[in-house]
Amino acid sequence: MGAIQCGFCTPGTVLTAYALLLKNPRPSRGEVRQALKGNLCRCTGYQQIIDAVLLAAQRMG
Ligand code: FES
Fold first, then answer.
1. Helices (H), 1-61
2. How close is the Cα of 31 to the center of ligand 1, in Å?
């Protein structure tokens, strides 16, 4: 999904996304955005990260 560029933010983003999907296996785009709001990424512009979390939700479900 192009969610990783430099990778600096990736560990925190992955842990945050995983915690979200444990609580809410089928989040909306807005719920993903809300969950990740504390994770700063200087590279991706966030859309790719949100797309990746939504794809992970589909594949884990
Ligand atoms: S991928 Fe570089 S800070 Fe997020």
1. 10-23, 29-35, 47-60
2. 21
